[in-house]
Design brief:
Oligomer: heterodimer
CATH architecture of one domain in chain B: Sandwich
Order of helices and strands of chain B: HEEEEEEEE
Number of strands of chain B: 8
Distance between the termini of chain B: 68 Å
CATH topology of one domain in chain B: Immunoglobulin-like
CATH class of one domain in chain B: Mainly Beta
Helix content of chain A: under 10%
Largest sheet of chain B: 4 strands, antiparallel
Amino acid sequence: MIVPAVSIYEMPDAFLVAADMPGAEKGSIQVRAESGALSIRAKVSRSGEDVRVYSRRFVLTDGIDYNKSEAEFTDGVLTVRLPKTAEVRARDIPVQGE
Amino acid sequence: MFVKLVQQPTDSTFDSLISDLFGDRVSSPSLQHAADIPVNIQEHSDRYEIAAEVPGVKKEDLRITVENGILAISGQRAPVVEGAKAKVLHSEISTGRFARSFVIPRDVDAAKLDAHLSGGILTLTLPKSEAALPREISVK
C-alpha cells in the first residue's frame, strides 16, 4: 500500500484535498465520505510490476456539504473539493450603526 | 507522524548496478536547488525504460535533454492552488523545480529516445542499438 502525499487547503467557501497518485488507473479511483471521514483509494498497475494500491483516510470537520462535493483526476493528482455548508461559510458581516 | 530516514549503505550491489548503468550525475550549479523525483528503471531485451513520477506537472513544463551521453530531466510544478484566498492546512506536496540526470548506457541508441507523459508518469524509452540486441548465431 502506498500512502499518497496530500495537501489540504481552506478557501472561504470550500476545503480542497489534493493527493499525488501518479500512475493510478482513473477507473479504479474511489473517493468516499462516510461517517465523518473521507477515504481515497486507487490502483496502480504498471507493466512488469505487481499491482499496488494508494490509500489514505482523513477525519473531516463538520459543516461540509457532501452532496455538492466533487473529485477530479488530472496529471496524476486527485483533487477533492468539499464545499462548506451555508452555515459555516465565511462571510462579511455588515457593521450597523451611525 | 514524521520518521527520520535511516541512511542506507551506498555500496550495495543494487546501488552499484544503478551507478554503472545510469549513474546519477552531479547536478550542475544551476540545478542545485532542484528537488529529486522518484524513478524506476527497467531493462528489457531490446530497451531500457525509465518511469519518473511527476504528478501535477504539465507537458510544457518538462524538459528532457541528451548531451554528451547524459540524459537530463528537469521541470517545474505549479502550485496546486493559486491565489491568496487559500489557506494551507496541511502540506506534503512540494512544488517548484526538480531535476534528475542519468548516464546513458553504452548500448543505447540515443537518437531513438522517446518520451511519453501520462497520468503523472513520465516514461522514457531508450532502445538498445542493433549491435547490442541479443541474437542467435547459426552453426554452419
